[in-house]
Amino acid sequence: MIEAKGVCLRYPDGTEALHQIDLEIGPGDLVYLTGPSGSGKTSLLKLFMGMEYPTSGTLKVLDQPVTKDQAGNIRRLRRVMGPVFQEFRLIRGRTALENVMLGMRFLDLPPAQIKENAGTALVKVGLAHKVLSRVENLSWGECQRVAIARAVARKPAVILADEPTGNLDQDNALKILELLTSFQDRKTAVIITTHATHLIGHQNGGTLIRLDRGNMHWERLG
Ligand SMILES: Nc1ncnc2c1ncn2[C@@H]1O[C@H](COP(=O)(O)OP(=O)(O)OP(=O)(O)O)[C@@H](O)[C@H]1O
Question: The ABC transporter domain covers which part of the protein (predicted)?
Fold first, then answer.
């Protein structure tokens, strides 16, 4: 599903964010990405999303090479990714339901099906009572759940959540990790960046990737 061989990422200002990354993530895998601030976690997610390209090495996502000259194909690839961005990127003035539906606009589904799937996703994240609320009237935690619903409603091949525990106390961080890992199934891989490694449940298994100044170390959990 995701295969990286010797991947390096150097930004135009010379910063080497990732160095010689080798990894394989298969369908249904659960991967936690951790490491200090600036260690390269977001950069790695951006590579998986085709928002950055490797400066050297090879990266394939769903058998699609992630290179600049494949930009058109990568745009299509993004439709089967389920990103949950740190800043959520919700559209103000629109309801929770509309936000989730907008995230599905590229899917080849009839409008009624899109609406139904969007509603189901909001129920799954515990927001049945906020479906018709505008997002600016929701709390921060509710907005986070809308962002998760938008990612999962697309039934993506990979859910990528960037630091979903960042602003949460321990109880809520645990709930969000449990919610995100509940979407892992045979076909859906879940990748979560987090500083909260002490909250990672070993019962779900999975892999912990530690990044340290762009270098990677693996650890199997469970
Ligand atoms: N667009 C960019 N241009 C230049 N350098 C960048 C850019 N984006 C990130 N960096 C640098 O690349 C390195 C890795 O950044 P990245 O955002 O991937 O780290 P992170 O592990 O996600 O950090 P945090 O936990 O603080 O979010 C850092 O040194 C950062 O300053």
Answer: 2-221
